[in-house]
Amino acid sequence: MDDWLIFWKPYLTGLAFSIQLALIGLYLQLRREWLAALAYGQVGAAGALLAQVMAWPLALGGLLFSAGAAVAKTLLARPLGAGVMFVLLLLLGWSACLLLTANLSVAERLGQAMFAGQLYFAGTTELLLALLLLLGTLGYLRFFGPSLLQSFLYPGLPCNQSRRWVRCFDLCAALVLAAAVMSMGVMGVFALAFVPSWSAFRCAGSWRLACRQSVVLGIGAYSLSFFLAWYWDQPYGPMLVACLLFFGVARVLGLGWKTHCEQMRRRGGI
């Protein structure tokens, strides 16, 4: 019991990020820009590694680099294409991470932690950052969520093209993804942003229901993986991805089987 009490700050840190990532992932799915969850996270990891080399705060480097990536995507998405921009950012972040870890010993250990996840070492600073971003994300989506949906579904409307605050979504997503990577690892963050939103997007009958299902799946898989990794003394990142894949895929396949059985009953096959 005493060991479990030590991890309440890491657990709350990951819980705050899991809620944000599940919601942001839905909007990325709606825009068909789910690769942004991997691209922004990879760039944020490169920024944190460079900050470690320069003796700067890790969060400062990760957030600055991810914010710069979001600005670059906004400026260059039209001439290059949004999908191409995410691929370029992903490759840039990946190459920068490998070069830093290969040539600088001070960045090697942190680089391994960035990919595997170091949630159990999260402290007060990481928790406060996660809670601050959670409040900002929920407030932003609460007030601008309907307008974001309208802008994504009907991008050609003149009123949508003139709303500059809609473009702030890329910046919001980039900051959350970069901050989460520093605690949960690149692939863990990508899985939290992609799998719950993908499953809810496939199974839910309305947008509000999709938001609820995505958050519930994200929180449930995160909490279970946190406990299992602690109990079995396993790496957290792979355990998180395994739980998300199990529940996400089971949900989609279960709905598909249910739909198939209903169709067979209507045809008199069962």
Relevant terms:
single chain; 270 residues; mainly alpha; ABC transporter involved in vitamin B12 uptake, BtuC; 12 helices
Low-pLDDT windows of residues: none
User: How many discrete domains?
Assistant: 1
Tell the overall outline: globular
Distance between the termini: 51 Å
> What is the class in the CATH system?
Mainly Alpha
Average pLDDT figure: 86
Number of strands: 0
Number of helices: 12
Give the percentage of residues in beta strands: under 5%
CATH architecture designation: Orthogonal Bundle
User: What is the H-and-E element order?
Assistant: HHHHHHHHHHHH
| CA-atom Rg in angstroms | 19 Å
Biggest sheet details: none
CATH 4th-level superfamily: ABC transporter involved in vitamin B12 uptake, BtuC
CATH topology: ABC transporter involved in vitamin B12 uptake, BtuC
Determine the fraction of residues in helical runs and give it as a percent range: over 70%
Structural class: mainly alpha
Quick structural summary:
The chain has 270 residues and is mainly alpha-helical. Helix content is 86%, strand content 0%.
Structure description:
With 270 residues, this protein is an all-alpha fold. The chain has a single domain (2-267), classed as Orthogonal Bundle (ABC transporter involved in vitamin B12 uptake, BtuC), CATH 1.10.3470. It contains twelve helices and no strands. It has helices at 2-6, 8-31, 36-53, 58-80, 82-103, 105-116, 124-153, 158-161, 168-184, 186-203, 207-232, 236-267. Helix 9 packs across helix 10, helix 10 runs antiparallel to helix 11 (207-232) and helix 10 runs parallel beside helix 12. It is globular. It starts with a helix and ends with a helix. The mean pLDDT is 86.
